[in-house]
């Protein structure tokens, strides 16, 4: 968001942010509210993740991220953008709470730590990609596509996550805990 919130076309779409440009409090809210969504998502996983299962929690989290991305991308008001950021953050919070657990339960002990750390590296890589996309679209200042495409691009990762998790089995540890010994074998 940091590259997007200063674009003139973005500020034209959300005039309240342009009015507050020098103070930055609304910009800070729009950027930081995502983390509140992440907190909500992690609490959802604490409460329901074990009932859902690791794979299903990731699927639900990714689906929530896609909904939030659609809300953000289609935003015409500041309130809609903020709600979209919270929803997307909730999905991401679910995933960042579920994926490392699923990985650690699935991975052989010799590579378990590497795989969990590799997820963090992928997150950092995704942030880098987002910065380069924002930079590239800074020069396209003809329409709201300048900020809508970078926001919409996060759906790509949600779709990859859904496709990827469907290719893998549920955690044997979770299956055993829920009395599904045959499926765990």
Automatic annotation (TrEMBL):
A GO term from the CC aspect: membrane
GO molecular function: carbohydrate:proton symporter activity
Domain of life of the native organism: Eukaryota
Coiled-coil residue windows: none
Subcellular location: Membrane
Keyword Transmembrane helix part of the UniProt annotation: yes
Alphabetical list of Pfam families matching this protein: Sugar_tr
Annotated transmembrane regions: 26-46, 58-75, 114-133, 145-168
Matching InterPro entries: MFS_dom, MFS_sugar_transport-like, MFS_Sugar_Transporters, MFS_trans_sf
Cited Gene3D superfamilies: MFS general substrate transporter like domains
Entry keyword set: Membrane, Transmembrane, Transmembrane helix
Family from the record: Belongs to the major facilitator superfamily. Sugar transporter (TC 2.A.1.1) family.
Record's protein name: General substrate transporter
Species for this entry: Aureobasidium pullulans (Black yeast)
């Amino acid at each position: 968001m940091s590259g997007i919130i200063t674009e003139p076309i973005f500020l034209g779409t959300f005039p309240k942010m342009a009015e507050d440009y020098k103070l930055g409090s609304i910009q800070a809210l729009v950027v930081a509210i995502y983390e509140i969504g992440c907190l909500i998502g992690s609490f959802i996983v604490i409460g329901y993740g074990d009932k859902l299962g690791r794979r299903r929690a990731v699927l639900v989290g990714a689906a929530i991220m896609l909904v939030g991305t659609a809300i953000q991308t289609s935003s015409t008001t500041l309130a809609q953008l903020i709600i979209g950021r919270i929803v997307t953050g909730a999905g991401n919070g679910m995933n960042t709470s579920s994926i490392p657990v699923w990985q650690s339960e699935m991975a052989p002990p010799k590579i378990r730590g590497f795989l969990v750390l590799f997820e963090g590296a992928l997150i950092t890589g995704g942030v880098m990609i987002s910065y380069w996309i924002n930079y590239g679209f800074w020069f396209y200042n003809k329409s709201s596509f300048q900020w809508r495409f970078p926001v919409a691009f996060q759906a790509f990762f949600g779709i990859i996550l859904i496709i990827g998790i469907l290719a893998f089995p549920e955690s044997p540890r979770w299956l055993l805990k829920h009395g599904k010994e045959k499926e765990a074998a």
